Amino acid sequence: MKKLVFNLVVFALMLTACGGTTNSPAPIATEAVVAATTSAATDLPVQNTDGKVQVQVTEGDNWIKSDLTTFKVGVTYVFTITNTGRRAHSFSISHPTADKTASGINAAKAGALVLVSADQLFPGAVVTVEHTFTEPAPAGTLEFACLIVMHYKMGQFLPIVVE
Q1: For residue 84, is it left (φ>0), alpha (ψ between -120 and 50) or beta?
Q2: How many CB atoms within 10 Å of residue 123?
């Protein structure tokens, strides 16, 4: 038993001593990634030095997630939208539509505050857009959405609020 324990300890030390270093440098955090974090003290988004607030939005197959869903009038937001899904998606900041047919979706596209088309947001794509909200939008009046008919029907939207 002592020999087994000894061998395990030696093996663990060998793994630690020989453990994986590579000649490639460690990844460097970019300003956009750092700016998307929140302050531990306030739990508020961290602004870039130019006063713009970074927002990370991720779209997958039939879902949208964002690190921020409440926004302020007059603040410029830089939305970095990443498609982690296997299908192309669109991204919009638009009014919800009860009409989930093609005509209802087209009306939502026509009235969208921001629209990134599916040909820009293919699988693996990262798109960045800026937007400044000019008026309040209470709960239920705006959302992030993928305005592809079947995706929207399957619930690919996320309500947002502008104060």
Answers
A1: alpha
A2: 12
Cα distance between residue 127 and residue 68, in whole Å: 17
Q: Which residue has the tokens 């399957």?
A: 154
pLDDT confidence bin for 154, thresholds 50/70/90: very high
Amino acid at 156: Q
**H/E segment holding residue 58:** strand 53-60
The 10s digit of each residue's pLDDT in 43-79 is: 456 566 688 999 999 999 999 999 999 999 999 999 9
Whether the predicted model's global pTM rises above the 0.85 cut = no
Q: Which 3 state secondary structure label does DSSP give 141?
A: strand
The percent helix, strand, coil of the chain (3-state, each to 5) is 20, 35, 45
- Return the SS3 of 95: coil
